[in-house]
Amino acid sequence: MIGYPVFKDILRQQQSGMEAMAGPGVIGFHLVSGPLVGFCLGYGLDYWLDTGPWGKLTFLIIGIAAGFLNVYRDSRRLLKKMAARDALDKTGTGHARADKNAEGHNAQP
User: Which residue range(s) make up the domain with 45?
Assistant: First the structure.
């Protein structure tokens, strides 16, 4: 029978795995959603004002720029997080904390 501490460790590993996948997954979403929203706004504006393709083209370009800006920001945030994790691993602080947590979970009934 799996004890409570083991289940909690498995759950923690799954959560950290999901967090690791969430960062890169959002980057792809930004590349698609920015231009799509820009095009839809431009299409609606063109339909409402009868301005031809200019609204679609303008807002598509704005959407592409917004998508790439979001990708740039998310990439920088992800790289900073990875650098901080690497720094913790190099100093040994991350391993000591993991060992301390493991000891604390094993001590519980």
Answer: 26-107
